[in-house]
């Protein structure tokens, strides 16, 4: 994996009497990573001897992404308790995924993600207004996304079995499976949000938030087709995905005092056209995913309590919980050999895939003096039994059920020393992670059967000058 990134940030302070500053950010990123063959022995030909594959340690899948982004913000000065920011953002990303493999001594190449250019332009505004004990915040964003894809017209005509010189005479229907979609994704997404914070007591704040979010599908969700070695899977995009929409509400209560801090919040999200990876085939640990959409509902709780016996030590107890459901899924329709509807099956509501399990944790931070700090971080992650499934609607194939993951205990320790030499400040730290050396399986991972790293130690030095 190689990443090269360049950033430029500049500000123009008080260009106008009513403007506090104008800021500009520019960035350029060139990203590359490849997936190499595992080097397993395979039979390339039933008449050949059983030997090591020619693809051993070769870069079979090559992922590239080159992008440029720009963002300009105009911050106006406070006016009767109102502050705000207006801005524009433009970015252009060119990405592709190329596959090359040697089969029976011959190099085979294809594009899992055809070369595409994702262009996005957005306008946004945020504001804040404070009146007595109330603080109101609001914002909005409109974004246009266009993904033009260049195709070689003659190759598409040949794939249809026609002569490019007389293509107008060709009556054969265009394949719907193998031929790419020449249409361009070109849509607009609009998002907005508003929140209220009420300081009804010197130590308490009540908050209420509502947002409507719209998200464009990514090129990978739209067009990717083929293997993905990093997740040990085959993935298939869906070219007619619509933008993802959600309406979200959250209510919270915060308390802050000299000794005690605590907060608790609850949220509910209602999705239209929720985009997710649907497992449609499973053989051992090899999976086939297809991007799909449906309505979805998510709700959860988050909270923490902190106690400070003095200004050097703090103890925090925290936890979070989330549930997700896919609802009102489209019917499964089976057609007969002549294209008529044979069977219609209703799909039941189900748990959303890869939803994280409930967690609780304890953090202890100690600043013993100006030089030394220590930390203790314990997390208890519970078993995730609420898993998703996929109906096969076939007597020959069983339904696919998402893998459950066991709970675990995670203990991390750390110590740090900081000082300075002249004008240079430095910090030396040592962290011990997963001290209990537990087997940790992450439910949100696409490799939930692969344990995370065991007991490990990290040493480092940070310097500022």
From TrEMBL:
Main localization of the protein described in the UniProt heading: membrane
Keyword Membrane annotated = yes
Q: Where is the TonB-dependent receptor-like beta-barrel domain?
A: 26-435
Compartments (UniProt record): Cell outer membrane
Q: Which GO terms describe its biological process?
A: siderophore transmembrane transport
Domain of life of the native organism: Bacteria
Spell out the InterPro entries in the cross-references: Beta-barrel_TonB, Beta-barrel_TonB_sf, TonB-dep_rcpt-like
Q: Which GO terms describe its molecular function?
A: siderophore uptake transmembrane transporter activity
Q: Which UniProt key words apply to this protein?
A: Cell outer membrane, Membrane, Receptor, TonB box, Transmembrane, Transmembrane beta strand, Transport
Stated name of the protein: TonB-dependent receptor
UniProt organism field: Neisseria brasiliensis
């Amino acid at each position: 994996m190689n990443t090269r990134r360049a950033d430029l940030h500049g500000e123009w302070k008080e260009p106008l009497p009513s403007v506090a500053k104008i800021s500009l950010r520019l960035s350029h990123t060139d990203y590359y990573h490849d997936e190499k063959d595992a080097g397993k022995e395979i039979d390339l030909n039933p008449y050949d001897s059983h030997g090591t594959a020619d693809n051993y340690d070769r870069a079979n899948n090559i992922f590239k992404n080159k992008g440029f982004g720009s963002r300009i913000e105009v911050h106006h000065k406070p006016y009767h308790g109102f502050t705000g920011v207006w801005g524009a953002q433009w970015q252009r990303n060119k990405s592709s995924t190329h596959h090359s493999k040697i089969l029976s001594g011959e190099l085979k190449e294809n594009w899992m993600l055809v070369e595409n250019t994702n262009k996005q332009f957005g306008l946004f505004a945020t504001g804040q207004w404070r009146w007595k004990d109330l603080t109101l915040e609001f914002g909005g964003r409109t974004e246009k996304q266009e993904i033009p894809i260049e195709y070689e017209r003659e190759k598409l005509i040949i794939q249809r079995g026609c002569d490019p010189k007389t293509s107008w005479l060709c009556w054969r229907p265009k394949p719907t499976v193998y031929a790419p979609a020449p249409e361009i994704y070109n849509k607009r997404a609009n998002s907005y949000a508003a929140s209220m914070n009420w300081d009804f007591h010197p130590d308490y704040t009540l908050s209420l938030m509502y947002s409507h979010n719209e998200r464009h599908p990514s090129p990978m969700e739209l067009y990717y087709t083929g293997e993905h070695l990093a997740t040990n899977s085959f993935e298939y995009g869906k070219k007619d995905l619509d933008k993802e929409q959600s309406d979200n509400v959250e209510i919270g209560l915060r308390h802050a005092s000299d000794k005690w801090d605590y907060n608790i919040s609850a949220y509910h999200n209602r999705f239209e056209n929720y985009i997710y990876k649907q497992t449609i085939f499973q053989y051992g640990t090899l999976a086939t995913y297809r991007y799909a959409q449906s309505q979805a509902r998510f709700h959860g709780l988050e909270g923490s309590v902190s106690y400070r016996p003095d200004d050097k030590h703090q103890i925090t107890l925290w936890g979070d919980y989330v549930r997700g459901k896919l609802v009102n899924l489209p019917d499964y329709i089976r057609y007969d050999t002549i294209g008529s509807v044979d069977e219609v099956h209703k799909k039941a509501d189900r748990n959303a895939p890869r939803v994280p399990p409930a967690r609780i944790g304890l953090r202890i931070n100690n600043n013993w003096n100006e030089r030394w700090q220590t930390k203790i971080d314990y997390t208890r992650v519970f078993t995730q039994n609420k898993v998703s499934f996929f109906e096969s609607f076939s007597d020959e194939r069983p339904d696919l059920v998402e893998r459950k993951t066991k709970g675990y205990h995670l203990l991390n320790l750390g110590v740090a020393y900081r000082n300075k030499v002249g004008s240079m400040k430095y910090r030396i730290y040592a962290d011990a992670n997963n001290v209990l050396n537990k087997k940790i399986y992450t439910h949100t991972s696409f490799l939930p059967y692969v344990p995370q790293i065991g007991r490990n130690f990290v040493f480092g030095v940070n310097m500022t000058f």
